[in-house]
What does this fold into?
Amino acid sequence: MNKLILKPGREKSLKRRHPWVFSGAVARVQGKPESGETVEICSAAGELLAVAAYSPRSQIVARVWDWRKREIDQGFFRARVVAAAAARRELLADGVTDAVRLVYSESDGLPGVTADRYRDTVVLQLTSAGAERWREAIADALLEAGGAARVWERSDAEVRELEGLPPASGALRGPREPMRFTITENSLKFAVDLERGHKTGFYLDQRDNRAHVRALARGRDVLDGFCYSGGFALNALAGGARSVLAVDSSAEALQLARANAELNGLAGADWMEGDVFQVLRRLRDERRQFDFIVLDPPKFAPTAAHAAKAARAYKDINLLAFKLLRPGGLLVTFSCSGGVSAELFQKIVAGSALDAGVQAQIIERLGPGADHPVALNFPEGDYLKGLVCRVNG
Ligand code: SAH
It folds into this structure.
């Protein structure tokens, strides 16, 4: 088999079972592996460390499939998908939710494979050369083991460029229609648009946190910044919020949000198209006040290299949010930036409170649900962090 031979001393992270091989760690490539092909990773001393998928165009030149010598074939993918799906069974059995993440990439031993199940449809996103090469085997495994009737591909994430892969979307298994249908999350209905929705169609990682917002919203004036299809806003209404103002810059997202409000018979939200950075300033100038603000912005820092710029953006919106809160008000603020650690995020939010001139406390820390596990050997999987802060009265 083709091999990547590492430089002396560069086997350390693999021995700790970190599943990435960086190009700078490789002394030489033995043989002529193609993009996505399985290679053996060997130390300078010739010890076999892992079998991995080769990605010649990426800085992450190989991603580990397994730590022992084994055949990577259809059976391998079937077994990994079965294991990942089994771990989610309980989540789907609660009778109030029919949308979960089935496969979460490195955390489920399948680097570059994300699969979200929406009712009978699995939406698949492939983001690595290895995953790309095994597309058909992965689609079959999801159909067999994922309990689904169709597999739809949404491999249009920008990160594919880093692997030299073109975008790809559409039906992989099963019918093309319907491209838009309704899912249920904690008894609320949401329309998912397979073709045009963000990411795979819905932000499944916030399921538990949306339920939490529902539980906290009663009687409060709520602002949902970066609302997308209305996940937090509708939960706030369902929880008895007095008023809800929801803001997003995407007209299409707001269309979905309005449709979702109707689906659930939840009137009373004011859906506003705009840039949250500007809207918060305007609300401040108008001296508007809220009891509860949710900020769930997009990924400002995909990697640590973007951390400084991202920090300024987080600082800005959280500072403005603190200014808009009445005494006793709650701020539920998130970062889904892999490049901003939980510790750094807390520091940024502390700086925001300081500059806003408010005294605030963290009363809870939030993360994604159990269908977004973090493998202990892959801390990079731990991207979503949230703080519930209370402004002292
Ligand atoms: N809270 C949502 C997910 C938010 S995703 C949920 O529960 O489903 C981030 C959203 O921010 C996207 O809908 C995107 O359209 C929007 N967005 C990105 N930049 C923005 C900006 N500057 N102002 C307002 N919305 C923005």
Summary: The chain has three domains: 3-66, 74-178, 203-391.
